[in-house]
Amino acid sequence: MLLDFNSEKPIYLQLAEAIEDDILKGIFEEDTQVPSTTEISINLKINPATAGKGINLLVDEGILYKKRGVGMFVCNGAKETILKKRKEAFYNNFVLSLLEEASKLQISKEEIISMVERGQGR
Amino acid sequence: MSTIEVKNITMNYGPVKALDDVSLIIEPNKIYGLLGRNGAGKTTLLNLITNKIFPTQGNVLIDGEGAFENDRALNKIFYMMEKNLYPEGMKVKEIYKWTREYYSLFDIEYAMALSEKFGLNVNKKIKSLSTGYTSIFKAIAALASNAEIILLDEPVLGLDANHRNMFYKELIANYSENPKTIIISTHLIEEVENVLEEVIIIKEGKLIEKRSVEELLNSAYVISGEADKADVYLKGRRYIGEEGLGKFKSATVIEDSSLKDEALAKELNLDFAKAELQKLFISLTNS
Amino acid sequence: MNNTWKVSKYVFHDYKKSMLVYYGVILGIFILMTAAYLKISAEPNSRIEFSGFGFSAVVFLFISGLNSFKAYFKFMQANNVSRKRFFLGTMVILILMAALMASVDAVCNVVFKQLIPYEGLFTQVFKMQSFFTDILWSFSLMAFAVSSGWFITMLYYRCNKVMKLVVSFAPVFTFILLGIIDRLSMGIVQRVVKLFLAVVLGSPYLSIVYYLLCSVVAFGLCYILIRRMPIKD
Asked: Looking at the structure, do residues B202 and B225 belong to the same domain, yes or no?
């Protein structure tokens, strides 16, 4: 897990995304344990409260859950939850601005679709 | 869980005002950075909190009790001082043993384990330790004390990079497993930026900043790119820490990061980055 | 109370060693004395007397007092112990040491006398034998020695350079001043001093009261000094 401390994105957010990435990659399988806040904060040399914030974010989103006395585990269906979340983000960050730009350049919907097919063919 | 309340502390040494009407509250179980230039008054503040010196005006409360000559309150604090107050002829392990007399929760096995990790020979006398190892032994004593509040004055003085790295990790591990209040007074701001939760900045005896690191860093942002383009963005804006290399330029804009003009930056092909605590500190404490 | 005792423990752990050495030396000297006595008393027309251990104990305690501040104070400050508690803990152990040495001394006086013609300090001064008065008197004298040593070291620690000079010269200066006053007043000072000594050294009981009072004053002054004592190097 490598975080970019210079990036504008808050560390806790980067941490949450890094864990999500690892879940998607299969490094953390569903219903298995993820590193504790202590382990993460020691490893990355960050304040445990920051690490905790990232973990809690994932708990709130239903990606991780806490097993009392043991630690944090990946929820069942976490992969799906993450993909769904990312797809929504993809829509908001890329698709909407694509459509905005396309409208500026007066590109029709059909043209967009054929461009997509062209791109996919490569 | 203990709270420290510093109430209108003024410290005069004759005509010199070492601290000027400083008031602040240290909430429990946070890692604080106490930052300030040389002679700003950091050590004076720490000395006042721990009954080493007495304020000209004002007072210090620990958990609502006056700190003055109060053994019960003072026992909640372990103060790692820059100055060495331990007898030169005593061995490290003897000092651990005696510290346990006064700090009953002192974990001597943990102290021994840490000493081994750092390569500190506990059979050595204090006077034969290097500057680095003197700091190490005092830092270990602080961590092993299990006091509710730990004050560290320049804890990594003289430590090599490896040991500094180890120290921060041990500090984080200790804090994570046994939450406590930690105040680190240091000049090495870059290193410690991500470890701190809040900063307290003292300038010429006055408290000029006490905020969470997150908030402080969000009050500014870095813009970088081609020098001419950057200047366009910077026009009319307050900025500090200008750096340039040939055609490239970067600067820290003093403006809430939520106010950054993304559209303009995109147009000018400029990049944003997070503000650096050290740069903000330098700007805040320059005369 | 227990916490104050922890301070005493620390101060004493240092003195354990020096006291053992001290008594070791005393024992050694005593053996030498016995050997000398046996040798010399065999000769006709020989007279020999021994004394002095009481006085050496007083000196030992005075020096201990001188030694009981700086290093211990710094250590207590490192461990966030209040000055009040440091004062009490140290005072207790210093008094106990004085009591211990006074008792040992009185016992020695009795024991030595069996083997060699030895005269303790008390006997020398008051020309009488009384075990319990001996202990009490020795204790009061030793308490005064240790407390004044402690006071002097604290005073020096507290003073800055200028004050140190003043304090060092004050006794000499007072002495000279008294001498001048004496000359001018045609001997009044001398008479006062003689009267004073007669009172103090005339009766062992008055002597005890006097030294105990002085100890109380010395400890009291120590407390006043220590209240706001800063940390220096």
From this structure: no
Which DSSP helix (H) or strand (E) runs through B224? strand B221-226
Q: How is the beta sheet containing B65-66 ordered, strand by strand?
A: B16-26, B4-13, B57-62, B65-66
**Token couple for C69:** 């501040």
Within this chain, do residues B106 and B14 fall inside the same structural domain, yes or no? yes
The token pair at C51 is 């004394």
Q: Are residues B160 and B240 in the same domain?
A: no
- Cβ of C80 within 8 Å of Cβ of B54? The answer is no
C22-28, long-range: CB within 8 Å, 24+ apart, which pairs?
A: C22/C60, C23/C104, C26/C53, C26/C56, C26/C108
B271 touches chain A (CB under 8 A): no
Out of B213, B239, B269, a domain closes at B213
Q: Which of C75, C84, C230 sits opposite B69 (nearest CB)?
A: C84
A104 belongs to a structural domain: yes
Q: Are residues B35 and B59 in the same domain?
A: yes
What are C183's two structure tokens?
Answer: 């000359």
B196 touches chain A (CB under 8 A): yes
Please give the tally of structural domains in chain A.
2
pLDDT band of residue C180 (cuts 50, 70, 90) is confident
Nearest to C74 among B74, B79, B85 (CB): B85
Model pLDDT for residues C114-166, shown as the tens digit of each residue: 777 777 777 777 777 778 888 899 999 999 999 999 999 999 999 888 888 88
0.80 exceeded by pTM: yes
Whether residue B146 is found in the same domain as residue B39: yes
Pick from C74, C85, C231: CB nearest B71:
C85
Structure tokens at C91: 């005072």
Domain residue limits at B59: 4-213
Asked if B32 has any chain A CB less than 8 Å from its own CB, the reply is: no
A50 inside 8 A of chain B by CB: yes
Find the residue in B nearest to C84 (Cα).
Answer: B69
Contact check, Cβ <8 Å, B71/C231: no
B234 shares its domain with B164: no
Domain ranges of chain C: 2-227
Residue B156, helix vs strand vs coil: coil
pLDDT: which is higher, B101 or A122: B101
